[in-house]
Amino acid sequence: MAEPVHVRRLTDQEGYELQQIVRRGSTNSVSYRRSMMVLSSAGGNGVPVIAKLVQADEDTIRNVIHRFNEIGLACLDPRWAGGRPRLLSGDDGDYVVATATTRPARLGQPFTRWSIRKLAAYLRRVHGHVIKIGREALRCLLARRGITFQRTKTWKESPDPERDAKLDRIEEVLEHFPDRVFAFDEFGPLGIRPTAGSCWAEQSRPERHPATYHRTHGIRYFHGCWSVGDDTLWGVNRRKKGAANTLAALRSIRAARQDGAPIYVILDNLSAHRGDTIRRWAKKNRVELCVTPTYASWANPIEAHFGPLRQFTVGNSNHRNHTAQTRALHAYLRWRNANARHPDILAAQRRERARIRSEKGNRWGGRPRAAET
What we know:
Blueprint: H1 12-24, H2 29-42, H3 47-54, H4 58-71, H5 90-100, H6 116-124, H7 135-144, H8 163-176, E1 181-191, E2 219-227, E3 232-238, H9 243-256, E4 263-267, H10 276-284, E5 287-291, H11 303-313, H12 322-338, H13 343-360
Parallel strand pairs: 1-4, 4-5
Antiparallel strand pairs: 1-2, 2-3
Helix pairs in contact: 1-2, 1-11, 2-3, 2-4, 2-11, 9-10
């Protein structure tokens, strides 16, 4: 039997950028769906599950995962193109792109960024590789190669000294105990205002929402819980984040497995998740808190499911108040849980996991892994 297809371990920068794309949904649809595929695979989901999540062919998902493992985030833009050959050679084009993406100071130029005029002038006088190209042709060449004028962005690298150990533990419980793994996180803030989105409409006649000037309803946070084994997402809206609300969510997770056996909850390292009261309760109730590394909340597998939640309940909405917003959100959750996975796929995955656990046994004691549940 062939090995399941999974993405390699994400770097901090890759996880952060994928999380931003999925949460904000502000990029093109191809990059958005491919980001969901990669982030879902990083969260431990198999190809059949991802296919149901993004409504795509399984072979397409495998190709995207393989491409990500080869070239990283560049796979989010497939760069489909065609047309007649260009006048400049491929080597000339590569040189122009390499020069444009290099800081001018590294090439001995006294400025921090290129303009089209400065770049064209520099290319015309480079010793050993002179390229005579006009400003408009240069602009078109860069556009074809996907090089655009953008604002500089920052990203955070995890300074957590236990980063690898925490990621290893998350991967271990997702692989060996998926039926007993849950993910928890907050989603928001959710305000009461008309929110831009997208929908089908007659050409040049988009659906319009009124503007709002006074926002007197306050905000809410959706405290979401996701069961990895049966792909069930549930949660509740709260006025704010806090240890009490986190503990209430953990109790609802513990109630989902009333057999008293250990369960594993993946959550980020927010201070409201790490209080002494929560740790004492978790130890007493056999709940292991698998905390993601600092600045690496992308490692929480629930992140991939917050993208559709925002797209289909917040985007293109104009709720009257928080009560109407909460009802719409819960209505979507009921629909999502009823249509998340095909029963045959879910049953086949459970049988496969049981077979793997019985064959491998427990690495510490030699018992079958089914005994853990």
